[in-house]
Amino acid sequence: MTFRLFTVSCLLLLLVSLFISFLWVQTVLPGALDLDPWGQQIHFLPTVFSLWLPGIFLFFSSIWLYLSPRLSVVSEKKFLKYDVYSYFSILIFFWLQIIQKELSSPMTAFKTLILGILVLKAFLLFRAFHYQSELIQPGMLFTLSSGLYVLSLPFLHVSPELELSALLQSTVILQIASIIVKALALSAMALETFRLSLAMTKSHNSAFFGWIAIAFSFPLLFFPTLKLILAGLLLIFILRLLISNVDTREFIRGLQEPTSLTIAVKLIIILMLLGAAGLIFWSNVKPKFGIQADRAWEAAIGSLLNGQYGLLSTSPIYWLALCGIFYFLSFKVWDGILLIGTGTVLYSIYLFSNYGMFANIPFQFDCVPFIPFAGVFIATAYHRFRKSILFRTLAGVLLFATQALNGILLLAFPESSTIPGKMSQWQHLLFTQSQRDISILLFSMPYALFSHAFFLTFSAVGFFTWGTCALRSPSFPRPILQKLRIQHGSCGGGQTTRVPTVLLLVLLLSAAFFHLAPRLHQLPLHSPHRLSRDRSQLIIPVDSGPGRSRKYRAMILVSTMRNSMMLPHRSPVANVTVSETAKQFEHFVIKAGRDSAEETLDAPDMASLVEHGRAAVFRTAIQHTAAGSPFKAHDYYSRFVFSKNRAVEQISLKLLKDSEPALPADTELWIKDIFLLE
């Protein structure tokens, strides 16, 4: 891109900004102005949209202007041509503005178009980096990630239809400033991850892939709390200095033999690691605590696998990190073993202190300080296994799934401001529209220490990662290895899976999962049922019509609790008895924090008072406190699997008034919905 073309682009974008402001008046506020919209008088209503869309084009044009002298002739013709073509999408935006009164959700349409433009322009830029790895420089990556973070603000944090004059309010300025500070800290953390990945793999493309995986996926795109970002930045910075400047094998030997390393160097390293750990563990401590190892384990597994806030569920690309971990352990790479050991110890201490001792409620950003470790593992896995068609196909499917989830979390359900809230609404939509149980596919239930779901998941991951590591083993048969390699599609020293193959696999897997998901049959409750001390039992008959001819494998119970703040985690609340037509019975226990939870758990100042954890959220509604403050009230759901398929005749629930620990006198359990699964 020449400077003359860049100047023309800037003038064009200025006109685009003015025209967006002009169209916004004509299409949104024509009645308020009471004027001839096409007369001599011209009015403008500058909004965030009038800066957002031109800002995206200006940002990428500036990047291309900087890179043009360094691009090869082929890359310049190939990528700059498509970037110039992307300017025609501005006409589509104008068209959406003109017809927005006819759209059921115009804001979603605007955001979808802008997200598509952003993804397309970023994809072209990333492909140019892949073709010419010498373009990948630390300063460029920091600028690129910072700019993209700032450009993503209107998706979640700033209303795009907000007038520009409203941005000058002190509260809005402070909010935007705090988010920009987080964006810079996130960019620095991602950059340090790239540098450490580069030091360990010696490959710009592999380190760049790891940087993309962590920088542009959730939870980082949600801008977590600053202290967790700084903790992750400090940890990865210290480890990069250690691995880059100290021989790891010698360092580990030196920790055992004082003659190998000086006491001063050891002391400095230990103090730096303790300082980073102290920043991670900085949180509000409750005055009383007890040891709850099961709750810490549940939080550890849930923060990774829970379908509503787990890292591996909201961003499937992180599954590739397990391949890197298995590679380090299988081939005894000491730098990688140091990373695994450090991350495991700090992660365990953090979760045990927060949940096993202080009994906090699981947080959606628990994994943020440890995401840089995953980025290094992903870069290593990509570097070592990218020649395998199996790994490359898996990486393509996971990347596609991650971007699809990113789009859902950025565009859908704008009324929800948390990752669990958005994911629960998405799952509830799938429940109601498909009439199938998708909880088994999305890992929504809490993981127990010896649950079948955990062992099946861990076994599947272990088998795949063992297989990918076996491909790198010298003893693996060469003829089989040659069959697992793709022979076409070479570019930039690496090979890529064809996009149609990945899309076909995603569609086939989705169809298979949908077919395997059991059908839902909702019992007609008509209204919620309350269980309390004065009404402790409830009997719900199953429809005697076609229900008798059906056999069911499981039951989903939707419930919520009130006045249950003092109930400990996993304390029994009610018994559930499922009766069969053959006069056989099956019993289950509803437990606080696992199967149901306090309805007002997210009310102001309530989280610190609730003694049990958060169950899987089924749906959310806005309620108000006595002082008039709005909060999100939740209904929760749990899945009870029968020992065998049963022809259910009735379902009985009984509140455990005399359980240990005893239920508070005013505790209520509300049964909202019951689903039977074929």
From TrEMBL:
The UniProt keyword set, sorted, is: Membrane, Transmembrane, Transmembrane helix
In the UniProt record, does the keyword Mitochondrion occur? no
Q: Does the keyword Phosphoprotein apply?
A: no
Q: Which residues cross the membrane?
A: 49-67, 79-98, 110-129, 141-160, 172-191, 203-222, 228-243, 263-282, 309-329, 336-355, 361-382, 389-413, 449-471, 499-517
Q: Which domain of life is it from?
A: Bacteria
Q: Would you tell me the protein name for this molecule? A: Uncharacterized protein
Supply the source organism for this entry: candidate division KSB3 bacterium
